[in-house]
Amino acid sequence: MANSADYGRRLIPQILDELAVAEPNRVLYSVAVSQDISQGFQTVSARTFAKAVDKTAWLLRGQIEDSPTIQSVGYIGPHDLRHVLLTYACVKINCTALFLSPKNSTEGALAVLEAAKCNIWVNPDGKSSRLVDEVLQKRPMNVLGLPSLDELLDAEATEPYPYEKAFADAIAEPFCVLHTSGSTGLPKPIVWSHGLIGTMDAVRLLPPTEGDGGMAPWSAGWDDGDRIYSSFPMSHGAGIIMNILLPSLFRLHCVMGPASVIPNLNLIDSLAEHGKIDIWSMIPSLVDELGEAPDILPKLASSKFICASGGPVSPISGSKVNSFVRVLNLTGTTEGLFIGNLWVPREDWFYFAFHPYSGFEFKEVEPGIYEHWVHRNEHAPLFQGIFHTFPDEKSINLKDLYVKHPTKANFWSYHGRNDDIVVLSNGYKISPLDTEALVTTHPAIEGCLMIGSGKPQAGLLIELKDPSSGSDELFESIWATVEKANALSLHKNQLLKDYIAFSEPNKPFIRTDKRTVKRRATLALYADYIERFYSSRLDDDAQHLATDTSSAASTTQTIRRIVESLLPDAKAVSPDEDLFRLGLDSLLVFRAIKSIRVATGLGDKLSTRHLYANPTLAKFSEAVIQLLEKVQKTAVNGASPHDTPDPVQDKLRQMMDLHKSRLSQKANPCDLMNPNIYVGMKFYIPLGESVSFEQAYARLQRGLRRTIDLIPALEGKVMPCSEHEMGYKRGDLRITLPPLPSTATADVASLDASREQPRQLRYKDLSNWLPSYEELRAAGFLSSVFKDEVFTDCPWFPPLPADVLYAQANFVKGGCILTLNVHHAAFDGVGAITALRVWAECCRYDEGDPSATCSWLDPESLNRDMLHILYELEGYAKPAHEVDPNVWGFLGFPNPADLANGHNTAQAEAAVDERFTTSALPAAPPFPRKFAWPPTPPADGRQMVSSTFLIPPQNVEKLRQTVLADPDAKGLVTSISDMVQAFFWRAAIRARYRVATELRGESFGPDDMAIVEMPIDARPYFSSLLPSSYMGSCLVTNRPYMPVAELCAPDTSLGRIAYLFREAATRITPALVHDAFTLLQSVPDYSMLTNACMGLEGMHLMMNNLMLFQTSDISFGGEFFANAGVPDTVRIQMDRFNTAFRLLLIHPIREDGGIELLLGTLPEEFNMLVADEEFSTYAEFMG
């Protein structure tokens, strides 16, 4: 082991030689023998590898003449260990390996070789690619052959090749040479010196210091012996880092895939099962693909983390991955490698944070947009690698753009480049300038911009001189010009025909006085258009092609046409030709699969893995046909007018009603069933085309102002009652409202301003760092992807007095995410939805809809005395002692008799009045009573993480049929709601049960119960005279329960559990609801509210079922909002529950009939859940 004092001052060849002596049998590399990892690895020990390096060095030394200067040795070869051997060997013989990208153009490769003065070329096995042949025709070089890997590893008899330089002498010498992407012109060589490499070694020496937020350097967790796999090619900087540098510096065991297989999900799947990978290093597009592979993700849960680098990762897909295995999002440069990256909290994986020694500065260049600079400081030799590459520079503009985290200082998210480079999601970097200049020479074109940053495919946005002149002939003429630009580009076929878009006539490109296009301003103008353009291409790529899947032959022909449209070299080739040898790459695979999904209707059943595993047209077509046959086989198997009074009387009544509406009201006993928390929801509303955020926000403001006029309580505050109030009980609350302003004292101007801008609504522009609305929609509006704190800073447990309403309009490109937080003592969930419906209708009224008057809103909708009035009126009133004590089991307060007897636990066996010994109600289930609000968080500080699962429509039907056929359901369970509740409850508890029994060694007896608490809207049971728009709380809590071991037992059927829910539902009757109201009035202390779901320990939980809720009754109007302002969906703010509550949420049924499930879990519980065979039979992970 190295002394920490040596970190940053070691030479990699010497590390190897020392290791070969100290630990000769230590395995350094394991190379897969095939894509099926179960077939094993070829392992390479330290001694064997060091001998192979020496053999390679002697071979090269015998063919390369000595030189006083270090010579470059060019190489392009298979992704195998020869890259590593060549790197080490060249250093030993006073040369340096120059790795060229095989994706270079001939001109690009020649430019790098010329700039590096490279006159030596090495061909693996004496073979060369077409690019190499073209280069050697134009640049005569000394061409050497490199033997096969097996021959090089057969080196036992080789004499050591000494390398005895001191670090101080070698610090500025090259370790190897890479090159830039050529995104700003021809590629240029980049020398990686030993000093630069040393900074990767020294990162472990970064000390804790002020400004690091207590976060560790990125090197923490890369431990001795960890197995690492990297999907990066060796010509990429990350490939060298992960396959050569870090295995040496951090003593890692490097796992390499077979040389002939392009990294893909099939390979990742097999590695996850058989490779025992601790650390994964992946290109961003592969991380994105992994996020959409719920069958593979659980297999990575045992790994330590995935290191994502090389380009932007989708925040949605990345968050799905992060739910299973932690994502380490690293950013660096080819010239400086990773500088000062820190481990951010897991939930903030998408952001970057940097150690103060990095010398970084973020300069604001536009409102909210910051440019990344690095300034040399005293720590440069060890911690600022870029100044080894540019030793004469004091400050460097990295030209990357970032935006701040909305709440956390010094957290940054990537926002693009400031030098016009287009960075695709697969890490490809494209300089658009030459392409744009050539395309703009077309006589019909006024200007064009390349688009596609963060997307899998580049596109071109063209502005015509005459927008009305579009025709097929003109398009073909323009396409011919684009093809010329493609031919001259670094990445051949970087623009596809389907990715040409034309500007809108009413949106001319924004230009300077010199008529040059303002790129960023124009791209911002077209942001929504570009998102819609890509969305349409992702869904409809195949629509322009004739598709026919009625037979095997026609399906094969359709697939051939699609592949040929993307890969012209595939035309007329044999169906057995390997498509990847013809130029198919990860970018084109992605496009092909998207197109074929549309053409065949297979959707997500077809993935990129199918094409990687079947790389010929014949094999792939057969795989698609089999999928189609499998799918087909599965398919077989509705105000009344009032009389108008005297105008004076009418005015008098209106004024009296207005003043009465401003009187404070005491929360009734039903209201106090809810704690001092906010009910939090998020509504996703699409914006209309070309609508500004300010327009939509102003509409929401005016609509809210009118809503407050109709529901004054929304402007009020919740506060404790005075103990001097008559009838006061501890825990009593009151909703107070601001009085009507007095003409004598009011400031008219400030009153007008407050009316126009209600303080209850806040504005937030999230468009710079959240995905677009279309991207959120495509991901299913996952509530588990982004923390709730992003959308609101509303406290969950507010100090009193607290606002009744706390709302925030969050805007992203193309949409608004409206967060609604309503104090639970003032409104229950149904009441909050009613208030939102009023708000939406008031927005329509502001839009000019004369019918949007909320005439359906009953004036007594917030009369908190209504429940008691109707209770007395309809004859349900009775003394509390006449109520069955088992009714306490449906409330949130303990039976006072239990507390009087000294019990702090609900006693199911408590003695009761003889009149109730034959009660039809079950005894109240026992659970530990906890009265602390907010609940005490776990002592270990752990919090749960939210995850969303989907029961697809076909699995909903499968679940239904399973339960219908179950004799334990007794033929009485026909509601899919009961079935889903049973399925979800059992799965969630069984995951916790397995953790308790299998990991902690706990046991459960027949008296250990699992309780599921289910809030039930009691309005339908209370009275037909209760206004349907009543917004105060009217809830009871149903508490089905079952022994934990029985619930989790494999022989307990879902039908048995669903029957339990059906049986429990029948207990909710008008009589029970009114008896519950009786007992609520008798509660001596309303501060003693408690629920079984409080705390993370135990086997209890609460379940909220929103399956039947639909947003169609809520419409904010169509002037500024798309879809008439009807929210696409609603999501509950879940993160707050994850600190100290066990909650399950069933989301509204999707349009396709699928059902989404949301819950919080600890990591070990999540692993048990996704491994549950029954659960995975019906549900799949979304994110």
Automatic annotation (TrEMBL):
InterPro entries: ACP-like_sf, Adenylate-forming_Reductase, AMP-binding_CS, AMP-dep_synth/lig_dom, ANL_N_sf, CAT-like_dom_sf, PP-bd_ACP, Tri101-like_N
Residues of the Carrier domain: 550-628
Keywords: NADP, Phosphopantetheine, Phosphoprotein, Transferase
Transmembrane segments: none
Sample GO molecular function, one term: transferase activity
Presence of keyword Cell membrane: no
PROSITE patterns in the cross-refs: AMP_BINDING, CARRIER
PANTHER family, per database record: ENZYME, PUTATIVE (JCVI)-RELATED (PTHR43439:SF2), PHENYLACETATE-COENZYME A LIGASE (PTHR43439)
The protein, known as: Chloramphenicol acetyltransferase-like domain protein
